[in-house]
Specification:
By secondary structure, the protein is an alpha+beta fold. The chain is 34% helix and 26% strand. It contains 12 helices and 16 strands. A 7-stranded mixed β-sheet has the order 1-2-3-4-5-16-8. A 7-stranded mixed β-sheet has the order 10-11-12-13-14-9-15, sandwiched between helices. The protein has a two-stranded antiparallel sheet with strand order 6-7.
Length: 303
Amino acid sequence: MKVPCYPDFAPIDLETRNEIHPRLLSAGDGISEFTFSNLYLFRNRYQYKIAAVNTADNGIIISGETPGQGTRFFMTPCGFPGFDVLDDLFQSHDYWKNIPESLLELEAGDSSLGRRLEERGIVVSEDRDNFDYLYLRAELAALSGKRFHKKKNLVNAFLNTWPDHAERPLEKDLIPDALSVLEYWRRDKGEDGDYMAAKEALEIFSTLELRGAVYYVGGKPAAYCLGESACGGAMFSIHFEKALDQYKGIYQYMNQAFAAALPETFTRINREQDLGDEGLRQAKMTYRPVGFVKKYRGERPGK
């Protein structure tokens, strides 16, 4: 199915991947939501719909709804759609989500696009809760120095306690093992969370060209992770990590082992956002991010 031109929208499905995926892969900011797999796997949660815009950078518009709030938002992952389209979008949506920093810095006449938006009454603000955390792959793989001392100790404790551990790249025959970890995680947490998206990601991981690994203790599946290439292949985005909590240090081990196993062409790892969860924010900060993929939110008061 061909993606319709704005103002028409269509649901995201696998048939649109060949058209959308190359455009998203070339997006320079590396925003974790702006991959085909992320949009597809969370299409039901956010009621995503998609439209194409006839611009020089083959623009895409994503329309969605905030779960439980009834508010509608739009996203522009591949360039600026133009002021006429933007004005029209604000008529039918409550806010503009995940504005890339590079978009705001674009030259627009004799000033930046960010300044032009401000002049048109659009209030743009940082969305800190949705900043993606960026790490150097080499640092996560080595965990060298005092900065990572506690993480390295947890990894070593895991390795010493369970010497019969193993890591295997995710292949089709290992999907049942990864699914067993996911089912355990769901029962243990007592809530679904991202269960449906994580389950579908495993079931069609080859179609989505995802990469991951399964981790074993005593020959039994104990953890798995799954993600994909972004930013033209220079960045790797981790979408899902699940593990059996009974193995202390397994998350730290999985984080280090997977970073070490990734090709060196991936220089940065995107471990996504903290969603405003203070505990998660502190945990992500302990891995010493080298930066963030900043995201912005745009609103037009009194529209």
